[in-house]
UniProtKB/TrEMBL annotation:
Name under which the protein is recorded: Carbon starvation induced regulator
Keyword Nucleotidyltransferase: no
Keywords in alphabetical order: DNA-binding, Transcription, Transcription regulation
Gene behind this protein: csiR_1
HTH gntR-type domain ranges (all copies): 5-72
InterPro entries, per database record: GntR_C (IPR011711), TF_FadR/GntR_C (IPR008920), Tscrpt_reg_HTH_GntR (IPR000524), WH-like_DNA-bd_sf (IPR036388), WH_DNA-bd_sf (IPR036390)
Source superkingdom: Bacteria
Any one Gene Ontology molecular-function term assigned to this protein's record: DNA binding
Amino acid sequence: MPDTRLGTPEIYADLQHRLLTGGFAPGAKLMPSALHTEYGCSANTVRDVLLQLSKIGLVEFEIQRGFRARNVSIQKRAEIARFRVLLEQEGAVASMCNGGLEWESALAAAHHRLMHIEKQFARTQDTIPFVGIWSDAELAFHRTLLSECRLPPLQETFDNVYMQFRQQMVGLESNCVPSYFHRIIQEHQAIVDAATAKDEAALRSAIQNHQARHTERDVSATR
């Protein structure tokens, strides 16, 4: 980071990005007294930002013990994935019903960008340096899918749940191998096809299938 003082929104955005892309190890202690020098601000400013990040579930905070990057576990990821499915199914179906040609065009554009990135990743053996680019594009796609649900609380909750899920994914997966992207290219295509066909049953099924390897596999792994 540059030595010049940063404003609170920039610090929030940077810390959030680092938490979502493996910039901090799961459970790593986050010390305002150390981070404030890096961001060129007061320790209290960093503390306030970390408190905000704790409210969306990316940071754990305990009185007298301070802040830590959230720990990850297969069981936690499965729980978050199941909740994500419920939110996304309802939001996507509502958007499908409310959205018109403009929404379909926005969804197609977001999907095109995401698919281009995923196809590039499917050809490389080292995807770790590009996780941030892909994560931003995937979030933009799923936000667009829900953008016409006309339920702001659902959209806000989905954003928080998505970020918690992404943090769990990055913390648990040592590497997203090319075969991973081959699968999700097909899964994202199925979601778009169902949404633009106005097929509610197919859309719900496509969203469920997109998370099935995390919900079904992870549940059995914890028994």
